[in-house]
């Protein structure tokens, strides 16, 4: 029997491409882990480069620089074994985990399972590893895995368990979406029980363009119990002690449940034996266990972290957004203030003759409650100038959506002018329901650098606003209760041209996230005319979405890298007929 | 010895998602092939769905509908064997080639090599086939391959040749870029010689969002000679006769050159024996051989076809563009007129006080020479309205890039207003050199639906304009000889703020297309300060490019699906230091 093992999981926010900054953060974590008596320190997947580095991985000089940064980290790995994710350039390129000890990289494990679906493109960059790997740390056999390796039952986890691993570590960069934290933790519990081994999962945290990584590192024992858990959506060095020998004892005792050799390929590399200084005293098994957020709290936290990281990692000091007094810009303003502080946010109200006194007053009250500067720029002047200039070409034509779009584009221009003059980042305020059906103006309300709630459906926007207002918040109640309107013509209401959001959001979820077809939707009870109309609107708005700024993925399928539809697309799920657009 | 075989290669323009339309086009080709006495008819990769269908392939109902369309085609395959590309939904999804004969799908070959680099994402959608396949047609063994299968030496082509195939067919959808036609043809010649077999390559033709497929179908004999070639960038039914027995004779004779069994896996499926009615008389071997375009003619043809197909396949009747009198908008106007005819194009000149008389007159002359309607919308009025409105927030600040961008955005708004009012598609006119360094205004000159020359570097823009003007064309010579300027402030010239285009374009090509790093560029002789500045500009403009409309890929690496860089990216190829943006 070996003594229990003290682990450090460094749930860190890596910045894509910042090799020196990430290496410094890893070294800092390593020092703190050693100070806390840890024998084994685990870092997230591709901690050296950040995740996903995308086509940076096609640059040979980037891979060389990443290796140099890894070697700097390894030079400080003394009296501890550090497992550090990096892209390995060998006879091919691998998504790898370096075993660092005694001041250098001692061995390298290569990720076996490369995700190439959803937001993932790993086959574009990496060759797959050919099997599992084990190291021995202070008498314990530790299996190595990277992210996707553990999402699939069987290889390489099973082989590692059969080769004697009683603790399996997983270095991960797992993008958040609504409810994923709980699903992921349950999956890890299942793997631990199935293979009778403890599992230590170290998750990346932080925002990267469209993705937010939620951290949520956990250590699970061989019975599936949570031994330690780090906070969600925040950096943390999680220190905990596990007793892998408990898993070994269980295997010898419970022969019916142990993993079966006949299902496995015998391919496991043994990457070395490592010893670290003995722990003082008799360590208590276990560690801190953070409380889990509820699902809507998770989404709000993801929006705050995703916004903060986009702003900070891209070097902006200040953000600006159009504040209409509607629910969407209200939520975005709250997120921005929670992410950056009120003094780094400017709101701009840009009323037209269609703006109601109610929304204008609510915008003012909200800005005042949050302590945010509010500019007012009425758009009547530019609107008249455009009307005059276009009077010739538009002669004999009635006002229509053209003039509505011009209002939105004037507002976009004004926000971009503030951005240009003062170096502010423009946050856009469109929600997923609008993005889906194209209920937005290209270069108008969609103009900006970051689309905070582009993947948040309208009904969820309301839930998040209510969550933010819980216990007496800054949002005037009218903003939540007033029927939604774009205020681009007199007495306009969203529900005049769209089905109620309860129907719209449900159809969008089924069509976009679940790839259901027309017949399946009708079979679920949606009115055929709603289904046909919404599907058509979603398909036709693809060209707009392609030009929208990035925003934070919070559902199971976001527009952007996650859903790659052709713009030129004659397929209509509605009938089998070929139909012109 | 079997008689020579008559082949039909249907180089068709499939429309993505238009299952019924594509099936009708295939049936039409099949009838014409049979009328011409062909025994074997070959269609492009995924001819049923168009290529690439992208995430349509994740929809179960789409795959079911595609199979139904295939079955309709197969029902008409009588007295001929038809090889038709489609996505097969079985225990997994395959990129497949259906062998249709006697009124039904008789067998299915599954593509073995799935490209997942550059613009390709096939691993996202498909499972790979496990080996080659052969059919026997009128006594000849014919090997089946799909696109990428033939780009890689060895499997499955080698196995098919070893199993006796003396003719190998390749159903392809190979996106065009500059010079690719010749490279591809040479590669096919090499495969034919290496495996001592004739190769019939049937290419897709047409534009699909960012991609143009160039057709350029060819039949190559076992000695590498071109037996027949279809036109580039146009639909064609290529009828030709080949004598596969010549390859068999050569193998028996020339034992040193025949393919070697020791390199191959023995995995080849025999998919059936098919006989068609005997050919009348003694057919002459060979077929029409189209002349190849020169490289710049190819690019121009690609722009015309790509523009025409984007407009037509998306159902637009008319296009509009801003005509400044500069070289970029001049080239785009010529392409648009050649693609659609002058009566479907409107040009708009939107002068400011910085527009020179020379460019304004040149724009008028060009429009007149091409017979295109020209609108004039001076932007002074809206500009004043913005200046007035922003006087408050901008108090104490000097005019800067903000006001330049506002001019460009007013022009973008005007074009979009015309688009909204009349249903016209806006073509944008930015070239690749500008896109690279961010020398464009987001929501300004980059506002529109299709960016015709976004992948054409500035020097190539000049070459293409000269090509279009060859032998006395519509372009006033001043447009070609005047130093390029954005005309957004007095006496502005591009080369005041950028290196000469001969340097700029070369650095862009090395950095973007070849992924060279800073040290490699300096070693090539570029001035370090130019390299550092251009690389930095390219990196920082990623956020703009992400919001640009799609345009036609003509280089080896285009912005868009082809080059997937993070926006949030702290990596600077310039030094190894971490540096804030």
Can you describe this structure in just a few lines?
With 581 residues, the first copy, chain A, is of the alpha/beta class.
Shape of chain A: elongated
Q: What proportion strand of chain A?
A: 15-25%
Largest interface: A-B, 97 and 97 residues
Number of helices, counting only DSSP H or I runs of 4 residues or more of chain A? 19
Give the uncertain stretches of chain A in residue-range form: 574-581
Helix content of chain A: 25-40%
Number of separate strands of chain A: 20
Structural class of chain A: alpha/beta
Assembly state: homodimer
Distance, first to last CA of chain A: 71 Å
Mean pLDDT of chain A: 93
Major sheet: arrangement of strands of chain A: 13-12-9-8-7-6-15
Biggest β-sheet of chain A, characterized?
Answer: 7 strands, mixed
- CA gyration radius of chain A, whole angstroms: 27 Å
Describe this protein's structure.
- The structure is a homodimer of 581-residue chains.
- Chain A is of the alpha/beta class.
- Helices cover 36% and strands 19% of the residues of chain A.
- The first copy, chain A, contains 19 helices and 20 strands.
- The first copy, chain A, has helices at residues 19-35, 60-74, 122-125, 157-162, 180-195, 245-253, 295-313, 327-340, 357-370, 380-390, 401-422, 432-437, 458-468, 477-481, 494-497, 501-513, 518-523, 528-540, 542-546; strands spanning 5-11, 40-42, 81-89, 93-101, 104-110, 132-137, 140-146, 167-172, 198-203, 205-208, 211-214, 218-220, 226-229, 236-242, 268-274, 319-322, 345-349, 373-376, 425-428, 450-451.
- In chain A, strands 13-12-9-8-7-6-15 form a seven-stranded mixed beta sheet. In chain A, strands 5-4-3-2-1-14 form a six-stranded mixed beta sheet, with helices on one face.
- In chain A, strand 6 (132-137) and strand 7 (140-146) form a beta hairpin.
- In chain A, helix 1 (19-35) runs parallel beside helix 2 (60-74).
- The longest helix of chain A has 22 residues, at 401-422.
- The radius of gyration of chain A is 27 Å and the shape is elongated.
- The termini of chain A are far apart.
- Chains A and B meet through helix 1, helix 2, helix 7, helix 10 and helix 11 of A and helix 1, helix 2, helix 7, helix 10 and helix 11 of B.
